[in-house]
Specification:
Elements lengths: L2 H10 L3 H12 L5 H23 L2 H17 L10 H22 L21 H14 L3 H12 L4 H8 L3 H26 L1
Helix pairs in contact: 1-3, 1-4, 3-4, 3-5, 4-5, 5-8, 7-9, 8-9
């Protein structure tokens, strides 16, 4: 089973209580859930990539994607099918992560993993390209969460500024400002690193 399919398998094979809740939600939904499941499966790589930028940890990202898929499958009636499914899932993912961060602030001894200890965002091959990609990932991981998430949505996922603004529920000007600050910060950090390396 591929990693993408294993996420959905975990989400679909929920405990009996969640399965019962999901069955009730499905009964009230016009659109068949198998189509929703299929569409979610196709979005899993993008969800996982976004989750990794939020969490800075592969394991936490996997857990976050699984939880977001469970929420989506448990409440399909909350999806407005006039809107793209990916926006709804990204919003669930982001809101679930923010809820987790709020919970961690209450608990003692938990918090962010330092960027230098975080798992890499992608698997590395050998060579100079891997070193450059690893350096860039560390630089991106060091950015504040609000800059990091907007940078991923626009530069990696290909959302327009307007789509990203709708997704993260901030004005378009804020998205543009965050993209500018993220790119400027990355350029400054990379230039400083190169100056030290010379």
């Amino acid at each position: 089973m591929t990693p993408a399919k294993s996420y959905i398998a975990k989400a679909v094979c929920a405990p009996p209580v969640l399965a019962a809740q999901s069955a009730c939600a499905v009964a009230n939904r016009k659109e068949p859930v198998p189509e929703l499941k299929r569409d979610i499966i196709t979005l899993l790589p993008r969800l996982r990539r976004f989750a990794r930028t939020l969490t800075r940890s592969a394991q936490e990202a996997d857990d976050l994607v699984q939880e977001a898929c469970l929420k989506a499958l448990s409440h399909p009636d909350q999806w407005d099918d006039t809107q793209p499914l990916d926006r709804w899932l990204f919003r669930i993912l982001r809101n679930t992560w923010f809820s987790e961060l709020r919970k961690r602030q209450v608990r003692l001894g938990q918090g962010h993993v330092p960027a230098e200890e975080a798992a890499e965002l992608v698997e590395m091959s050998t060579g100079e390209a891997s070193a450059v990609a690893g350096d860039l990932q560390r630089q991106i991981a060091a950015l504040p969460a609000d800059l990091r998430s907007v940078l991923l949505l626009v530069s990696v996922e290909g959302y327009s500024y307007a789509e990203a603004s709708e997704l993260i529920e901030v004005p378009v000007g804020t998205v543009m400002s965050r993209i500018h600050r993220a790119r400027k910060s990355l350029a400054k950090r990379i230039a400083a690193e190169e100056a030290v390396g010379r």
